[in-house]
Structures are given as structure tokens and as C-alpha cells.
Write a structure and sequence with these properties.
The protein has one domain. The chain is built from 6 helices and 3 strands. It has helices at about 10-25, 40-45, 70-75, 80-95, 105-115, 120-140, and strands spanning about 1-5, 30-35, 45-50.
């Protein structure tokens, strides 16, 4: 399946592809376009758009104080306590004014800004940051014993 979002990905637009690939669609293909081209291109290539808060037509989007990562969890009925905890970290990192949702969010925001500052392509940002989300997911899982 194809998924599409805005170029120049940072927090939510890295977290969402990680979530999609790990829990929704392991074969997911991601496309990154200018926001003005998003809806048209999504229709042309039959891709599911996500995380475009200025485009009300996009279903997998910010919802109130929640980020797009949380919309995907809700719509795909992912009932995993570790994902719920990770969602708060993503929200705290992604949405200005939601930093109180999780103390770890400021660190995730700093990492995302650092990857952006490196001038990497969106595809390379995914490749390099997926292990960060793998680690955060493990951090969020309840410890055994």
C-alpha cells in the first residue's frame, strides 16, 4: 500500500511511517510531496494521505490536541499500552503546547530537529530514525520481572 505526506519530515511524519510499517502495513511505501500537491498526488497514485493538519480532507491527521500518530492508533484499533505511552511522547515532541504530555518529548523533538539539520532526504530520515522509535517502543513496554 502507498502512503503519502508532506516533505521535510520531522516528528509525527517519521513516527507515523514507523507505526504503519511495524503495526499496520509491513510493505508500506511512503511518498513525500509538497503540501499543495498532496491531495492530487494521493488520488493519482492511490495513496493514503496522513499528517497534513492544514488539509481537512485528510482523515489521518491531528485531532484536537492529539497528533496523527494517535489518529492511526485509533483508526487501526491498535490496543497496545506501549504504543499508547509512545503516542504521548510523540505528541509532546510534535505539538507545541503539549510538552506536558510526556517528559521524553523534548528529547525526541531535539533528535528530530537534529536529523532535519543534517540535510538528509526524507527517505534517509526514516531509515536512520526507525531504530530510535524501535528503542522508544521498547522503553515504553512494561518491564518483565
Amino acid at each position: 500500500m502507498k502512503w503519502i505526506t508532506r516533505r521535510n519530515i520531522k516528528v509525527d511524519r517519521v513516527a507515523c511511517p514507523w507505526l504503519i510499517r511495524r503495526f499496520v502495513d509491513p510493505q508500506a511505501e511512503f511518498l513525500f510531496v509538497n503540501e499543495t500537491e498532496l491531495l492530487k498526488t494521493a488520488k493519482q497514485v492511490n495513496a493514503t494521505p496522513f499528517d497534513a493538519p492544514r488539509l481537512s480532507e485528510v482523515k489521518l491527521n491531528h485531532r484536537g490536541e492529539r497528533c496523527s500518530f494517535e489518529a492511526i492508533i485509533q483508526d487501526f484499533e491498535l490496543h497496545d499500552p506501549a504504543l499508547a505511552r509512545l503516542a504521548l511522547i510523540v505528541r509532546a515532541a510534535d505539538i507545541k503546547g503539549q510538552e506536558h504530555a510526556a517528559a521524553e518529548g523534548i528529547g525526541l523533538r531535539a533528535l528530530a530537529q537534529g536529523f532535519a539539520a543534517m540535510g538528509l532526504s526524507d527517505e534517509e530520515r526514516l531509515a536512520r530514525q526507525f531504530p530510535v522509535y524501535d528503542a522508544l517502543y521498547e522503553y515504553c513496554r512494561p518491564s518483565e520481572g
